[in-house]
Amino acid sequence: MKRLRYSLLIFMFILLGCEETIILDIDQAPTRVVIEAVLTNRLKDQYVRVSRTADFYSTGTPEKVSNARVKVTSNDGEEFEYAQISAGLYIPKIPFEGEIGKTYTLSVTVDNIVYTSTDELLRVAPIDSLGYRPFQGFDPNQDTEEDVYELLLYFKEPRETKDYYLFKFYRNDSLVYNTPNDIYVTSDEALAESINGFPSPVTYSLSDTARLEMFSLSRYGYIYYTDLTNLLFSDGGLFGPVPANPRSNFNNGALGFFQVSAVTTSTYILKE
What are 231-252's pLDDT values in tens digits? Predict the structure, then answer.
C-alpha cells in the first residue's frame, strides 16, 4: 500500500513539473469586411466606418479599410458621394440631411466587391417634455446615494404603426451609461400610448444638464441592437450558447449595420 502511495505521489510531481504551451489548431475563417454606418435627418450625423475582422490569435486592433468607394442613394435618385477623412472613416463630400419617408441604399466597394444595405428613414415620435424625480437606490456613476435623480420622459406613442426606439442619454454633454455595454432600445410593445414619466436608466444631480436623444429604428435595427446586447452580456459559460455575430443588413457576407433613423432631442436642466 505504501509503495502505491509513493508511486502516486511521484506521478503527481511529474505531472505538475510538465508545462507546455499548446496552440490550438483552430481553422481560421477568412477575414470579413465590417461596416458601421449611420444616416439620420440631422446634418453632420452621417458617417461610414469600414474595417476587417481579425483572426483568433490577433492581439492588435482590427484593420481599418482605406480607399473604399462609398456612396448613398435615395429611392428618388439622389446620390451622395462620401470622402475618406481618416483610415477607415468616410463622411459625405457635401453634408446632407436624410428625409423621413425616404429609403436609402448604402454602397461600399472594397477590393472590387460591392456591399450594399437598404433601410427606410422612419419618423420618430416627438418628445412632449422632460422632468425629474429623486432616485432611490445605488448608482455606480455617483459617489453617493443621496441627491441622485432620474430623468422622466413624456411623449405619445402612436398606435397605428409598429415602432422601435434607440435612446441616448447625456449628462453635461457627455454620453452616459449605467455600464459600458448598455444599449437602450425598446419596442412599442413595451410602451403604453401615453408615456407619463418613463424613467431614465442613468441618473443625474441637481444643476446637471440632461439631454435625451430618441432615434427611430426599423425592425432590422431593433434586431441588430438586441443581438448586440445579447452578445455583450453573454457570460460565456460552459453550457451557454455559442456567441454569434449580430445579424447584419449588408449583403455579400459583410458584418455590421447601416442605421437609418430620425432623431428627436430634448434638454432639461435639473433645478431645485
Answer: 876 655 444 455 568 899 999 9
Please, are residues 171 and 210 in contact by the beta-carbon 8 Å criterion?
A: yes
Task: Give 145's contacts (C-beta < 8 A, 6+ positions apart).
Answer: 137, 138, 139
**SS3 state at 53:** coil
Name which of 49, 197, 50, 219 is nearest 122 in CA terms. 219
Per-residue pLDDT, 136: 63
For 270, the 3-state DSSP assignment is coil
* Ordered domains of the chain (ranges, CATH): 33-122+246-259 (2.60.40), 127-231+262-269 (2.60.40)
Question: Could you tell me the pTM of the whole model?
Answer: 0.81
Which of 268, 260, 269 is CA-nearest to residue 124? Answer: 260
- Residue 164 to residue 186: CA distance in whole angstroms: 6
Neighbours of 243 (CB within 10 A): 10
Q: What is the pLDDT of residues 122-147, one digit of tens each?
A: 999 999 999 999 986 555 555 555 57
